[in-house]
Design a protein that fits this description.
Length: 188
Amino acid sequence: MKNEEILEYLKKNIKEKRYHHILRVADTAEKLAIVHDIPVDKVYTAALLHDCAKGNEESLLKDYKNIIVNEWVSLEEELKEKSLIHGPLAGIIARDVFGIEEKDILNAVIYHTTGRENMTKLEKIVFLADKLEPKRDYPGVDTIREAAQIDLEKAMLLTIDNTMTYLIENQELIAVITVKTRNNILRR
């Protein structure tokens, strides 16, 4: 029932192109959850919610900025970057609009763009599904898709390295939390 409510919310609050992206991410996440023996229902819900704030960041920030600052102090950097803030905002919507209380679902939504240290398998699957859904086409994506079927850690590392290379080549900022995520994976 909750997923139906989420789908209705998405249809009303995001653009059609984003809606289809979310459905592809949810489908990809579901497939990865089956391969890696993770509860499909939780993964699917998190995947549906991951971009529920995308495109509406400015209006949502007016209502939710204080909540983010007070509850997720570590996300101060994300508040400054429009491309990153939709994750924490989506986490608030998941909790406050849909009553999601499971920490792993909320973390999967909040950190689907940046990653975080000590991610659960559920979080990794949503992170990867967003980067690997079928319409994603970038150098190395097929290699990462293959790795994701076998080893989530390896796929995470390949994805983060790929993203960091892109950001460096384009003179863009790299979120400190993403560097910490990478280092955490390498330390395991």
